[in-house]
Amino acid sequence: MAQTQIDMDNLTGALRRETVKKNVAAIHISGKLSLLQRKLSNVLLLNAYDSLTSAQSHSIDARTLAMMVGYNSNDFDTLRGSLRALAETVAEWDMLDEDGKQEWGVSSLLSFAKLKNGVCEYAYSPALAQKLHDPKIYALINVHIQKNFSSGHGLALYENCYRFVRTGSTGWWSLDTFRKLMGVDGSSYYESFKHLNAKIIKPAVAEVNKSSDIEITPEFQKKGRAVTDIRFLIKENPQLAMFQIDDSDGTRNLPVYKALIEQGISDRLARQWIAEHGADYVREKLSYMEGQGTVKSKVGYLTAAIRDDYKPTADVVVEPSDDAKRAAAERAEKIQAADAEVDSRRAAKAERGRKFAIVADMVSARNPTQRDADKRLFMASLDDDLSREEFRAHGWNSALNASAIFAFWEELVPGVFEENA
């Protein structure tokens, strides 16, 4: 799947804002959205927010929308399908109004959406627009952070936990409520806590802690031996600064960035230093290090120089203590290791996307009878209900069944993935 970097300089108005206010009610109604649809919903709300209650409809360039969500800007079939899903998804809220009276309401997430002449036009119902724009109770959803998520359940859990970051806990939710928030209510498979914990809770928690600006820990409440309720303890992620770094200002084009890379500094660490301290300050410390001759660890030395503001003197060269250099090197090595892990995940994701694209080409080349036979044959090879349920829902794009899908087509057309590499 092609990936295109967004030029933030070409975005105007609300789209330049990194965060979007997401009302409590809206967060609680989006459980059944897929990852793509959830991201799309956030970007549409971001685009419409400033005129949410004053304009009857909103519009955005379709290619810009596709790029912000993170998929091929020419894939209008996927965009149409996702917009259709938002229009067909029912939003329901149950909350106290300003007078303390209970208010219940229901609406589709989008009252309409259309694509015409490369523009996406859409609207919210007046009642839902008021809820989405309510400034009293909201969470800030960072559209840069949401790009880090690769699963809808992970992003759904992040959205539902983030608004409680100041209180430190979500409070207790019944498992029925949690299933609804995750969009798996109505599934007999997830009625089992064992399955819910293994397939939804643990993976989603791991992704939130790895991919966002908060860290969460689940706690469970039991009645007898059965788990009945769940809550999440929440704290800010100490790596927040790393998640907020973006290259919309062209950091990678700066001479000092290129000089850092030549010294073996990782992309993320170089951008972090420049973002936090400014290009001139970092350039000064880089020049200072180069004037010290050979150093054992350039990463460790630069880390200490930037942190402690090393400056040359007429007679004395300031040298950090061995403990300081060691601690700085260890911190930098951890960041470097994290970068390597991120690069590895990106490479794996890109390879998976390449193979899915090949599968899509092969499927489109088959006639209807062959397609039906392929699906039935593959479905018969799956040995558990969850895999079959995922394949029914997502077909040949099922991420859960990726390995099995690739193996199936490799057996059907030997060497197909190598030939198209």
TrEMBL record:
Q: Name one GO molecular function term.
A: DNA-directed DNA polymerase activity
- What's a GO biological-process term for it? DNA replication initiation
Residue span, Initiator Rep protein WH1 domain: 19-161
| Protein family per UniProt | Belongs to the initiator RepB protein family.
- Protein name, please? Protein involved in initiation of plasmid replication
Q: Which organism is it from?
A: Cognatishimia activa
